[in-house]
Write a structure and sequence with these properties.
Blueprint (H helix, E strand, L loop, with lengths): L6 H31 L3 H23 L7 H23 L6 H24 L3
Helix pairs in contact: 1-2, 1-4, 2-3, 3-4
């Protein structure tokens, strides 16, 4: 440990790619369930958007590995993209018969994942 790197920053830096993998898994499962199980085309489209957001999370996990240059910036950009993708999926899902709980789930899960990864990226030191 050097004098400029604190232990919490190192912990956040080590947890960043794992948080992206977990976020991609959660959003991917939700997207798959919407795309494969739903009877409504708007919800299937929202599921497809969430699957795309999950792929973006996998790319972010690769970009935030230990030793990659500018992992913090890559993670913050990916967090913003995931938040926008989650909001877009929520807007698309409003065309179907979804209730407020469903809309909160479709848009809320990616927003929470984006928030967690952004907070970890802000705590991390590259």
């Amino acid at each position: 440990m050097t004098a400029t790197t604190t232990t919490p920053a190192r912990w956040a830096r080590a947890a960043l790619p794992w948080s992206w993998l977990a976020s991609a898994a959660v959003v991917g499962v939700l997207g798959y369930l919407l795309a494969a199980v739903s009877d409504w085309p708007d919800e299937r489209t929202a599921g497809g958007l969430l699957l795309g957001v999950a792929v973006l999370g996998l790319v972010a996990a690769a970009l935030t590995r230990r030793g990659t240059p500018q992992a913090r910036r890559s993670s913050l950009i990916a967090s913003a993209a995931v938040a926008v993708g989650g909001l877009a999926a929520g807007v698309v899902a409003t065309g179907g018969p979804a209730g407020a709980g469903d809309l909160g789930l479709v848009a809320g899960v990616p927003l929470v994942c984006a928030g967690v990864t952004a907070l970890l990226a802000l705590r991390a030191r590259s």
